[in-house]
TrEMBL record:
The family this protein is said to belong to: Belongs to the class I-like SAM-binding methyltransferase superfamily. Cation-independent O-methyltransferase family.
SUPFAM superfamilies: S-adenosyl-L-methionine-dependent methyltransferases (SSF53335), Winged helix' DNA-binding domain (SSF46785)
InterPro entries membership: COMT-like (IPR016461), COMT_C (IPR001077), SAM-dependent_MTases_sf (IPR029063), WH-like_DNA-bd_sf (IPR036388), WH_DNA-bd_sf (IPR036390)
Name the UniProt record assigns to this protein: O-methyltransferase C-terminal domain-containing protein
Keywords, comma-separated and alphabetical: Methyltransferase, S-adenosyl-L-methionine, Transferase
Domain of life: Eukaryota
A GO biological process held by the record: methylation
TM region(s), chain numbering: none
GO molecular function, one term: O-methyltransferase activity
Matches recorded under PANTHER family: O-METHYLTRANSFERASE ASQN-RELATED, PUTATIVE (AFU_ORTHOLOGUE AFUA_4G14580)-RELATED
Pfam families per the UniProt record, alphabetical: Methyltransf_2
Domain O-methyltransferase C-terminal stretches: 177-384
Length: 414
């Protein structure tokens, strides 16, 4: 009998799952499970096993959609209300770890009706493996709900995604960051970053959400640390522009003991950030308040590094950020950018392509901004200043985010 697509996919799932299973068993690591004491992450090493995981995820997604059939693929697949309620009422912390709570108890604690608590949690159980019902009417944790109870960053990630990235409204005809779906939903004429300056609780949740997402599949900062030749900078200085609270600077400082770092961000983001820099790195990591639309105050650094920055801005704004950098550049200064590059259709794994295209629409909702294809990046630098020379754009094996290296090529630049 001729092989069919569904049979091929099923065979691939079996083969590559068995590679993962053998690795976990050989290293006496726990097998994936949703049980309350199950692992919240697989912790597979980068390389072949991460690739195996991605192949299985891709094959199961495709098999799932094929068996669903084209008509059902037209249905909205996701109703986030149950997770939104779990976040808003902090239900994970109201269920005792390794114990139980009744629907009635939870309803009372959340001031919600028992009917609504029950329908929300039962939805989350079947769609998200968040909570379980070990006996009728009682709720206990799974590994996923336990993570929400134990890790405040996981909650920040969920709340941020629901409150800020989902309201995709019809306002995408402008490139102004204060006329987007997000600002419409928040009933404000301020762009998100200005709004955060006035709402420190939201600013804090944003930085915590970024930390929660940093370990996401395919966008681990390890890809950046391992795949850019940082050692060629010697004892130089890296300015991390829009570096939030310095997580990436710390990771790089650990690996490259000769490098110094200046982490720049808006004053309200950088305030208090020094508390999270471990004492051993404080002499090599400075924090500096700086608005990247104003002239760059650090002259002649070896590298100006931008991670997850340009995708937050429309082309007209991204060009302003680049122009504000120009007065500080000297011949040979490098820009290193860690951001997404939209793939040619079908050249990336389905899992990664979904993640990147998802991010593209999130950027539209939040900021009227965009992810860019390789040619868009090259055009962006050309329009900002022809003295920017794009040296290389590449996506390291296994990564979702690309690395873009750009050289400043004018000897006269101050
Ligand atoms: C998506 S986050 C990326 C943070 C960090 N680079 C990372 O990859 O984890 C964007 C950062 O840009 C900062 N930002 C926004 N507007 C800025 C401005 N005008 N000047 C400096 N930083 C700004 C935000 O505060 C935020 O920390």
């Amino acid at each position: 009998m001729a092989s069919t697509r569904i049979a091929e996919l099923a065979a691939r799932i079996q083969l590559r799952t068995s590679d993962i299973d053998s690795y976990l068993q050989h290293n006496q690591l726990p097998s994936p499970a949703f049980d309350e004491d199950g692992p919240v992450d697989l912790n597979l090493p980068n390389g072949d096993l991460s690739a195996a995981r991605e192949q299985v995820l891709d094959a199961t997604l495709e098999l799932h959609d094929l068996l669903l059939g084209p008509s059902l693929c037209l249905r909205p697949v996701y109703n986030g209300l149950s997770l939104q309620v779990i976040y808003k009422y902090d239900i994970a912390s109201k269920v005792p770890l390794y114990g139980e709570a009744s629907f009635a108890d939870l309803a009372e604690k959340c001031s919600l009706s028992e009917v609504n608590i029950r329908r929300m949690l039962r939805y989350a159980m079947v769609f998200h493996h968040v909570f379980r019902e070990p006996r009728k009417g009682f709720v206990a944790h799974t590994a996923a709900s336990r993570r929400l109870a134990e890790d405040p960053y996981a909650g920040a990630g969920l709340g941020y995604m629901f409150d800020e990235t989902l309201p995709a409204l019809e306002q995408f005809h402008s490139d102004e960051p204060n006329k987007c779906g997000w600002s419409h939903y928040h009933n404000t004429d301020k762009a998100a970053w200005e709004y955060y300056a006035l709402h420190p609780d939201k600013a804090r949740r944003f930085t915590h959400a970024m930390s929660a997402f940093a370990d996401g599949h395919g966008n681990s900062p390890a890809f950046l640390v391992q795949n850019y030749p940082w050692n060629t900078i010697g004892t130089g200085t890296v300015v991390d522009v829009g570096g939030s609270k310095g997580d990436i600077g710390v990771l790089l400082a650990k690996q490259f003991p000769d490098l110094g770092f200046i982490i720049q961000d808006l004053p309200e983001m950088i305030t208090g950030a020094s508390d999270t820099i471990p004492a051993e790195f404080k002499s090599r990591i400075q924090l500096q308040a700086h608005d990247f639309f104003t002239e760059q105050p650090v002259y002649g650094a070896d590298v100006y590094f931008f991670r997850n920055i340009f995708h937050n801005w429309s082309d007209s704004r991204a060009i302003l950020i680049l122009k504000a950098l120009v007065p500080a550049l000297r011949q040979g200064s490098r820009l290193v950018i860690n951001d997404y590059v939209l793939p040619e259709v079908g050249t990336m794994s389905l899992t990664k392509e979904r993640a990147v295209r998802d991010m593209d629409l999130i950027m539209l909702t939040l900021f009227n901004a965009r992810e860019r294809e390789e040619a868009d990046w090259i055009e962006l630098f050309r329009k900002a200043d022809p003295r920017f020379s794009v040296v290389r754009i590449w996506t390291p094996e296994g990564a979702t985010m690309a690395i873009i290296e750009v050289l400043w090529t004018c000897a006269d630049a101050a």
